[in-house]
Write a structure and sequence with these properties.
The protein is 49% helix and 15% strand. The protein is of the alpha/beta class. It folds into 3 domains: 119 residues, VSR Endonuclease (Endonuclease, Chain A); 167 residues, no CATH class; 106 residues, no CATH class. The strands form 2 sheets. A 6-stranded mixed β-sheet has the order 5-6-7-8-9-10.
Length: 413
């Protein structure tokens, strides 16, 4: 019998937390036990105070009393435990709350738990939606929602990838390889379905026959998409049956070259200056009808117009921020700020979690680059986009993150 344990009835923290979870209508299990077969590396068994469940996510909740969690050694132990639970037991996260928070601010604690549940549920839902692909239900025309969402994702990723490669490479072929690598990383991360396994279906047979013409083929909301990265649009040769098929979205990313002419149906062209061109057929697609609004992608992704507006503001702020840092780097007094200790307002275990996230992020992409070639502020922007959601409740500044990234890179390089 799983989770058959004796509960500590004398823990006022857990009693108060359990009452609050019940009152808030949050699904949970108390005193959840976890077995670990790797006894040499970690403890043989953990017992979580609570596990809370969303529609798709599960999050560990720990009530950190003074007796067992206040020392530095205890916080280091808790950090290792949290990381193991997330990495090996497929929990989305571990949230820890102190005695003071639970006893005097329980409403704030419940609000924070709900925020994390909503955030992680949305991440899971988006990934599941992206991965759905049924070759028997490919729509004859491409929805406006698919075009808008995919264009925003690819435009942002392509713009960043191109700027990065320009700083490192001049060879055209190497630039293409690096852009493709970044775009494929983004597509996989978003959960979009690689549809090579579905080529046997009659509806995709003609696409299978010309797969070599494309850099990548994937499915988005049940729409087959082909992707080509090129420096010269005039060199592109796409089979006519694919070119004129309104059910297949053709995506062309053009770097180091302006384009003036392209013929075909259902295509998007994005260039290295973030200019976007759609064929008239796509740009005039009608929004989803109100009848289907309840189940539409637009509804699942909140308000697409607000999404676009906020994304535009973020891009503008990002450009201004980078320009400000470029000016700041040139000042001799800037070096003084490098001696300032970041994250002073955070508790040690929060700081350690944050540093661990940044370190892992750097290990994946940036440790081999010199400090001059890639500015730490640029990496901070990218970290915020990819990892920031997991630390949204922490009181940290952009500059603190930049200083920490600069310091950690300096240590590793």
């Amino acid at each position: 019998m799983d989770n058959l344990i004796i509960k500590n009835e004398n823990s006022p923290l857990e009693e108060k937390m359990e009452k609050a979870l019940k009152k808030a209508g949050i699904r949970y299990k108390a005193q959840f036990s976890i077995e670990d077969t790797n006894k040499d590396k970690w403890n043989s068994k953990y017992i979580l105070d609570f596990v809370v469940y969303g529609e798709l996510c599960k999050i560990a909740i720990e009530c950190d009393g003074h007796t067992y969690h206040s020392s530095r050694k205890a916080k280091e132990r808790d950090l290792k435990r949290d990381l193991w639970i997330k990495a090996y037991k497929e929990f989305d996260d571990t949230l820890r709350f102190t005695t003071e928070q639970i006893m005097s601010q329980i409403d704030v604690v419940i609000e924070e738990i709900n925020k994390y549940i909503l955030a992680y549920d949305k991440l899971h839902f988006n990934k599941r939606q992206n991965a759905k692909f049924d070759p028997k239900k490919i729509p004859s025309t491409i929805s406006k929602d698919t075009v808008l969402i995919l264009t925003n994702i690819l435009n942002s990723a392509f713009s960043v990838a191109y700027k990065e490669t320009q700083k490192k490479e001049k060879n055209q072929e190497n630039i293409k390889k690096m852009i493709k690598k970044e775009i494929i990383h983004v597509i996989n991360k978003k959960g979009f379905k690689r549809i090579n396994d579905y080529f046997a279906y009659f509806s995709l047979e003609k696409l299978a026959n010309v797969r070599h013409e494309f850099d990548f083929i994937f499915g988005v909301f049940n729409t087959p998409c082909t992707l080509i990265v090129t420096s010269d649009i005039k060199k592109i040769r796409i089979n006519k049956s694919i070119l004129n098929d309104s059910s297949i979205l053709k995506i062309i990313l053009v770097y180091d070259s302006s384009y003036s002419f392209f013929k075909g149906k259902s295509y998007i062209i994005i260039d290295d200056k973030s200019n976007i061109k759609m064929c008239s057929e796509l740009s005039k697609v009608s929004p989803i009808s109100k009848i289907n609004e309840k189940n539409s992608i637009i509804n699942k992704y909140k308000e697409i117009d607000e999404f676009e507006s906020l994304l535009g503001k973020i891009n503008n702020l990002e450009d201004d921020l980078k320009a400000s840092y470029e000016s700041l780097y040139k000042l001799s007094t800037y070096k003084k700020s490098l001696n300032v200790e970041p994250f002073k307002n955070l508790e040690n275990h929060q700081k350690e979690k944050l540093i661990y996230s940044i370190t892992q992020f750097l290990r994946c992409s940036y440790l081999e680059e010199s400090l001059d070639e890639y500015k730490s502020s640029d990496i901070t922007v990218k970290w915020l986009k990819e990892e920031g959601i997991y630390f949204q409740t922490l009181k940290i500044t952009f500059h603190e993150l930049t200083l920490a990234i600069h310091f950690l890179r300096k240590q590793f390089i």
